[in-house]
Design a protein that fits this description.
Layout: E1 2-4, E2 7-9, E3 18-21, E4 24-27, H1 29-50, E5 57-61, E6 66-71, E7 86-89, E8 92-98, E9 101-106, E10 124-126, E11 133-135, E12 140-142, E13 151-152, E14 154-157, E15 160-163
Antiparallel strand pairs: 1-2, 3-4, 5-6, 6-15, 7-8, 8-9, 9-13, 10-11, 11-12, 14-15
The chain binds FE2/S2 (inorganic) cluster (FES).
Amino acid sequence: MTLINGKSKSSEHNPVPVVYTGNRITMTRKDLLLKVFLGGTAALVIPSTLTSCSKDETEEDNGSNNKVTIDLSDPSNATLLNPGGTKVIGGIIVANKGSDTYAALEKRCTHDGCTVVYELSTNTFPCPCHGSVFSATGTVLQGPAVLPLKVYPVTKSGNILTIG
Ligand code: FES
């Protein structure tokens, strides 16, 4: 719907996409949808750009979701060889839980977005900002966060970790 001088007109009958009415700018539904679509496209493109992988990490598109593989024999991933070691890859924190097991969780605390860390002695992911604590399965153990962290499946084959 477009407002021209305070009166509504159907966008299908109005060829003018943007109308200035004193102190208000309005647009047609088509233009609004176009802006939303373009904004949505940018939102879909930006995360994949931000989570681009270095040569020792690869991202595969299997058609339904993305998988990240980490080569543990690469020196840049050496922190993941030690129990308690972590590495942040894109929006995911990967942690070595000991006994050759790993966890991968969304790194952004659901309270206010800080990056969580891993605590081997308690097998938890505390948030350094306001004290929330998450289990290795993403459950909130202590607030102020109320929503869990997303957990990604991790498999290990030889020196390759596959997340997702
Ligand atoms: S941002 Fe994590 S507890 Fe506030």
